[in-house]
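User: Can you recover a sequence for this backbone? Please restate the input before giving your answer.

Assistant: Of course. Working from this structure:
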């Protein structure tokens, strides 16, 4: 968010500033070598800007850099008017003017992975900007070396030929489309997918899809994943053998939505979901990418879906508590299949020596009312845990780095843990070791207790039966469990950390809420048997595909463990 904005502004300033400076140095001074060096630096800055701002239009900067290089080239040759250099200049001008339109046109084409089709045009179109930057850098080096202008002309002609081929193929696709649709559409018709997963989110959000892919594959029916941002295509494709199709426009979606499709699944409330929901021949099912008491988990937008798969009754109650009126028949309780590999520990945590504590701070959210991030006060928490001899697993939210302040706070925590590991030998886990080398399930299974902000991690951890603490970063005091019911079976850390010692004693020693957690577990995660927990989701999905609307029936005593006898009192039927 703020970090992205800073990077984008910096990239824009560098690309523009260096391009202007390079031209002025070459045109107004005799320092040709310095000017050519600045031109190459401007090209590097423009390349970085395209990474930070994929849709950046730096035609003006590129034109200035090209002019600086050509003027420098002419000075180096010092041979008066050179026809080859003049033709090179005209060809470069054409490339500068055409690269962005060709890139944009190529970006509107359907692309696919894990399908037996090859479409080179959109890929080449997307790289034309880099090709032009490389060409200009090559011309700068040729100018420094004093190579003949014919060398520059040959290099420009080669890149121009590639751009012309891209333009011709894009024109053919638009004005003379092949019979039976595009190659991607024909391949999908042969694949005969029965359902799709529609995904639209900013880069870095692919975990929302990858957590569901193993279970979609276990449904046992052919399917496809439709992504709406180009950055998602390679990352999602690497996580599944199913076809992954990038559809940048609604016209592209028309090509991918083949007649065999019956159901569309969604994992978030992205704005582009509406592009797919307009296809009324499909049944639209919201899965979500986690279950938590956060405000976005009761988004009124959920009402537009035909069905809403939820982990437990608590999710249904959450909508009602937020005043979101959704017909009861839209909800299907399917559990949270991602917890099936979490090890269950039924006994309370009484005085464990050298416990391992998992700490999972969330991010600051898009809006102030969804900011539950505890990183600003976390140093006190970690120091108290270290004083108790705890080993800490620090696993931050994937979006943490998008906020510069959060990134700095996380950096201080990792330094603290690294210093303690060097001093005490305790094997704290943090950074990429916690976020990439270990899955969330592995982090849960390694730990004895959890400290978390309001997030879906608590719901997943609840399955283990182990104790957890929740940070009250909204400073609600006694009203906090009313707003976030999961906190009622956990130990609440105040925003000022004034009760941190009391909470850690309950979390790691006395654990008075052990029995209450089992009732909460049933409410949030359903009562499905541990040996076939994920089957609840799989059966529900298959029934949607087969046109059956009944939900799988949960069984009492989920996970093979007795429910707390006070469950009926704590959670009366609604």
């Amino acid at each position: 968010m703020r970090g992205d904005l800073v990077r984008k502004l910096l990239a824009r300033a560098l690309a523009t500033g260096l391009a202007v400076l390079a031209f002025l140095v070459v045109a107004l001074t005799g320092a040709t070598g310095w000017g050519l060096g600045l031109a190459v630096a401007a090209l590097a800055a423009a390349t970085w800007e395209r990474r930070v701002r994929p849709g950046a239009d730096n035609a003006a900067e590129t034109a200035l850099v090209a002019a600086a290089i050509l003027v420098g080239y002419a000075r180096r040759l010092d041979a008066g008017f050179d026809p080859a250099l003049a033709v090179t200049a005209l060809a470069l001008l054409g490339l500068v003017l055409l690269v962005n339109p060709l890139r944009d046109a190529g970006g509107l084409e359907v692309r696919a992975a894990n399908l037996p089709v090859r479409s080179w045009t959109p890929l080449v179109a997307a790289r034309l900007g880099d090709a032009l930057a490389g060409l200009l850098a090559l011309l700068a080096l040729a100018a420094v070396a004093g190579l003949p202008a014919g060398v520059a002309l040959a290099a420009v002609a080669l890149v121009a030929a590639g751009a012309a081929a891209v333009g011709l193929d894009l024109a053919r696709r638009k004005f003379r489309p092949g019979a039976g649709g595009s190659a991607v559409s024909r391949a999908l018709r042969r694949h005969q997918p029965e359902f799709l997963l529609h995904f639209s989110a900013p880069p870095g959000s692919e975990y929302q899809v990858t957590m569901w892919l193993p279970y979609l594959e276990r449904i046992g029916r052919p399917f496809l994943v439709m992504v709406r941002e180009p950055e998602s295509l390679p990352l999602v494709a690497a996580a599944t053998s199913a076809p992954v199709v990038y559809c940048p426009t609604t016209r592209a979606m028309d090509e991918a939505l083949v007649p065999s499709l019956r159901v569309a699944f969604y994992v978030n409330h992205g704005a582009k979901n509406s592009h797919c929901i307009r296809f009324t021949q499909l049944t639209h099912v919201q899965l979500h990418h986690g279950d938590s008491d956060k405000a976005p988990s009761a988004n009124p937008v959920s009402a537009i879906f035909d069905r809403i798969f939820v982990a437990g009754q608590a999710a249904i109650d959450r909508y009602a508590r937020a005043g979101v009126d959704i017909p009861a028949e839209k909800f299907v309780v399917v559990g949270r299949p991602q917890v099936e590999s979490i090890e269950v520990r039924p006994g309370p945590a009484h005085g464990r020596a050298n416990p391992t504590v998992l700490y999972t701070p969330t991010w600051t959210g898009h809006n102030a009312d969804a900011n539950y991030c505890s990183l600003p006060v976390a140093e006190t928490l970690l120091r108290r845990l270290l004083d108790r001899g705890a080993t800490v697993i620090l696993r931050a939210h994937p979006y943490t780095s998008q906020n510069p302040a959060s990134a700095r706070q996380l950096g201080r925590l990792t330094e603290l843990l690294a210093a303690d590991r060097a001093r005490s030998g305790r094997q704290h886990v943090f950074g990429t070791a916690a976020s990439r080398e270990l899955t969330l399930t592995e982090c849960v299974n390694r730990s004895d207790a959890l400290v978390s902000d309001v997030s879906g991690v608590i719901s997943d951890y609840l399955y283990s039966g182990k104790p957890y603490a929740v940070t009250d970063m909204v400073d609600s005091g006694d009203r906090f469990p009313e707003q976030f019911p999961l906190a009622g079976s956990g130990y609440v850390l105040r925003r000022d950390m004034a009760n941190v010692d009391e909470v850690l004693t309950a979390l790691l020693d006395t654990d008075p809420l052990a029995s209450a957690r089992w009732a909460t577990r049933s409410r949030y995660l359903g009562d499905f048997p541990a040996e076939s927990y994920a089957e609840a989701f799989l059966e529900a999905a298959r029934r949607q595909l087969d046109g059956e609307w009944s939900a799988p029936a949960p069984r009492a005593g989920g996970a093979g463990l007795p429910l707390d006898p006070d469950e009926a009192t704590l959670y009366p039927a609604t």
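That completes the design. The chain is about 50% helix and 10% strand.
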